[in-house]
Structure formats: structure tokens, C-alpha cells
């Protein structure tokens, strides 16, 4: 990729679609280590053992679509309109219903409706609503973004940042318990992410918008140019993603 001009790489990435939660556009251009717990496999196994499940902030439905044995009732929610259409197409084959919700709305379901609630990388976790829709003995299983994730990339675009105060696993545990749930599992991982060209950086920042809030290709062109020079000199740009897995159960 090094022989391609900076402007060409940036223009290509700025025009590429970013709907859904599929990262295949980055194949051959960027890599990120996977958490050791294997979230998609965990979810698939749980879905096979329940009768009713809900996936919150499903994105394009990519995780649910991998389930080989979906439950009789499978529902997903999504707030971003472009993702809703993607999720409905993706999840048709597993018989899931996709419900569009507001960005900060409650869950439009009756109390004690689901044996399992899942969510990968939720925007925010509504613990009280999750506890409400879980049946007694039901579980919430979620892979979440950890504090200071991709900080090296954030600071390359935005400059020095204060220490992270949000997305702390300890706060998630406290919030789950405050909602009446029992936390039965908490794991954390730091994962190496490698970008091989500046186009991969641009596309990633457009898709994962919380990495550099307010990112704009034109406004941040000087920072992108500096990243491009660094990648060409060093062969890649390395950042570190942080994730945690949390499982909480509604007491029977």
C-alpha cells in the first residue's frame, strides 16, 4: 500500500460505506487481536440453550447471524437507521425480528420477556431496563469497550487527552448490582491493533466514531498526513483496544 499516494488513500476511505458492524473493508489493511473469551461463540452457545433472547445495539446483526441454533424467539434492537435495514437483511436467515429504537429510549418489551439479553459494544448500558426485561434466572452477557481504548489513535488525531474516566469495568459492576443483578463474570483484555495505511485509519475513525469524536477528514488532514508519514517510515501504526466481558444474572 505504501506506493499509493496519501490523497488517494484518504479519498478512497472517505467514500467507502461504513454501515453495519462489518469490518471486512479493512482486510489486508488493518488487524486487531480478538479477546480470548470468543464472544460470538459464547453467544451462539447461550442462544442454543434458551427460548427467548434479545440483542441490544445489534449493529448490522453480525453476531446473531453466526448462531447455528437460534431460539424460537429472537429479537434485536438498533438505534442507528442505516444499520436497521442492514440488520433486517442479515438476520432474516435466523428468524430474528429487528426493532428500531430511539438513541436513549427504554426497551419496548414487557417485563420478564427474555431468558438472555446480549450486547456487543453497546453505546450505553441501560442496566435497569435490562434487569426489567430479564426473566428470573435470566442472564445479560456483554462485550464492552474498555477505558482508554485506542488511545494512541485518539491522541494522534485530537492531541493529548486526560486520563479516561468512562467505560470502567468497576462502574459497570456497580451499576449492574444497583439494578438488582448479580455479576457472575468479569474479564478484561488489551488487544493490539495495527494499521498498515492511512486509508484504514480514516475508515476506522468514520465507523468507530467514539475513537475521535468530531473527526472530519478535511479538518484533520494535517494529523492524517502526519500519520501517513509515520506509517510509511515505520511500516504500521500500532494502537491498543481495550475490552471487557461482563455477565450479570437476575436472581431467581
TrEMBL record:
GO terms for molecular function: S-adenosylmethionine-dependent methyltransferase activity. One of its GO terms (biological process) is methylation. Keywords: Methyltransferase, Transferase. Coiled coil: none annotated. Residues 54-140 form the Methyltransferase type domain. This is Methyltransferase family protein. It comes from Micromonospora palomenae. The lineage of its organism: Bacteria, Bacillati, Actinomycetota, Actinomycetes, Micromonosporales.
